[in-house]
Write a structure and sequence with these properties.
With about 250 residues, this protein is α+β, with helices and mostly antiparallel strands. It is built from 5 helices and 13 strands.
Length: about 250
């Protein structure tokens, strides 16, 4: 990762902050970290503008404090450490899969209210895409084990609002597992029913109905439980789909 330059023009919301860790609510459409096409407009550029040298001193070895990432079109909780000690401790929790994550997803199709669990191995592969190639996940017995717990919160005749807990951390896990069940995420430009890949994996033109809602981890002898309110775009999508629930303010 190139050293991020500060960009104070970028707006973002902080949903948790203490002396050594911060959790931001990433907006949909914003990339998490700088890259070839987004050198100065990532969430990390905005964080460096606010916390400056504290992040830069962590260096590339510690990802300038960034503890994990979200896909560009996925909104919600992203944690960033401000000290080496916090980075090492919390990063170890991510690697041990002891961090609690809960996502909200708007899916196409009416699901029955209730809970279920999906277990299907996922294999990463590269496919052709508008930007050249793209890394995706496909269901394959030869892949790595992946499990997702799903709770249906609300349903309309055409769509459903679900809460998902990824018990493992595979690429696009929630998106693939929901599509496998026959309920792909609204606005998903890659996965469709049965977890089939769409013929054209072009850049999305509509809101992706996926939001990293809550993030929980142990830190400095206490429990941190951060909640990121869904974005305006996510709420508008839910209302357009006829969905109402307390999690989206209705």
């Amino acid at each position: 990762m190139p050293q991020p330059t500060p960009n104070a023009r970028l707006r973002f919301e902080i949903v948790y902050e203490d002396e050594s860790v911060v959790v931001a609510n990433k907006a949909p459409g914003m990339v998490t970290e700088p890259g070839a096409s987004h050198r100065e407009d990532s969430l990390l550029n905005a964080l460096v503008a606010k916390f400056g040298g504290r992040l830069l001193r962590l260096g590339e070895r510690r990802d300038y404090g960034l503890l994990h990432r979200l896909d560009r079109q996925t909104s919600g909780c992203v944690a960033c450490a401000l000290t080496p000690e916090a980075y090492d401790a919390i990063r170890a929790e991510f690697e041990a899969r002891t961090v609690d994550k809960r996502y909200l997803a708007i899916v196409r199709g009416r699901m029955k209210i209730g809970r279920e669990r999906v277990e299907r191995n996922l294999l990463e592969k590269r496919v052709a895409a508008a930007e050249g190639t793209r890394l995706v996940s496909v269901i394959d017995k030869a892949g790595k084990p992946a499990a997702t717990s799903i709770e249906v919160l609300a349903a309309s005749p055409t769509h459903s609002l679900v809460a998902c807990v990824p018990e493992t951390g595979r690429l696009h896990q929630i998106r693939v597992h929901l599509a496998y069940l026959g309920f792909p995420i609204a606005g998903d430009p890659i996965y469709t029913k049965g977890a089939a890949l769409l013929a054209s994996t072009k850049a999305p033109e509509e809101t992706l109905g996926l939001h990293a809602w809550t993030l929980g981890f142990s830190h400095a002898g206490k429990r941190v439980d951060a909640t990121a309110p869904p974005s305006r775009k996510f709420i508008e999508l839910a209302r357009t789909c006829g969905l109402a629930h307390a999690s989206i303010g209705s």
